[in-house]
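Quick one: structure for this chain?
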Amino acid sequence: MCKEDRLILFLAAVMLVAGVFGLITGTGCVEAQPLEAQRPRRDPAYCEAACSNLKALGCEEGKDLVFGGARHTCAADCLETQNNGHAMNAKCISRVTSCNQVHTVCGE
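Got it. Here's what it folds into:
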């Protein structure tokens, strides 16, 4: 085996060891995480604050709804939706400063 072959074999062994070490320690790949505000969460404790903010901003989403003659408040709808397993990101919505941020920042 010539000198160049040994060098190639040595480099291949180093790369193999580095790759195995990377797999074991989990440092091989880093997944990009979405921004916190873009991940809808179930946070029913913020329904009242979110709806109050939406109403203060004059957003359509903050208005009460009427189904079959029964009035549903924004907060009640928020709670029911989240209790049924759907995230609304109410904490984020409680902090928006414009109506379009409900969709662009909070992911709703």
